[in-house]
Design goal:
Layout lengths: L9 H11 L9 H5 L3 H15 L19 H19 L7 H5 L4 H16 L4 H17 L3 H4 L21
Helix pairs in contact: 1-6, 3-6, 4-6, 4-7
Length: about 170
């Protein structure tokens, strides 16, 4: 429920309350949460990882620096990885599409993801196993160069975010 006198949507207030107890920066302001840019999301994920030890080892050195994640594919991969770890840790799926997040769309779903991130970081779930499973899936996918052709997806560029969602693509 939104605070009295606050015009902020309830989902923004819920994100501020859930993450606010875990991180001090970046500031979880309503305008940023209502249209969160990638850099802001990266800073939140990085700070949760640092303050809680959550998903340690998920990202390589370059991914840990937001200035080195410039192209859309890298941003999608970054978000797909943390989404996978959160889902595996909580044992549930999250209704968030990284492509929509990167495009600045669906802020309510993005905030629901951020709330799930806070929950996963404090749940006591086995996030180390979730990281290992996520990295193993990514490794298998990258080693299967022929996957798009075998799946009847000629001309479709394969991306880690497509894992498990090939039924949504044209056959």
């Amino acid at each position: 429920m939104a605070e009295e006198g606050s015009d902020d949507p309830e989902w923004v207030v819920a994100t501020q309350q859930g993450l606010g107890s875990l991180i001090k920066r970046p500031k979880l302001t309503a305008p940023l949460l209502m249209k969160p840019p990638f850099r802001f999301l990266h800073d939140i994920v990085s700070e949760v990882m640092k303050s809680c030890g959550f998903a340690d080892g998920l990202y390589d050195e370059n991914e840990q620096q937001s200035s080195k994640i410039k192209d859309k594919e890298s941003k999608l991969a970054y978000l797909a990885k943390i989404q996978s770890v959160v889902e595996l840790t909580l044992g549930t799926s999250i209704d968030m599409r990284p492509a929509k997040v990167v495009a600045g769309m669906e802020p309510e779903k993005t905030n629901q993801f951020l709330q799930a991130l806070a929950q996963a970081a404090t749940s006591g779930g086995d996030h180390a196993a979730a990281v290992q499973l996520t990295l193993a899936k990514l490794s298998v996918m990258l080693s299967e160069e022929a996957v798009p052709q075998e799946a009847g997806l000629r001309g479709v560029r394969w991306h880690p975010a497509l894992q498990g969602h090939t039924e949504l693509l044209p056959s």
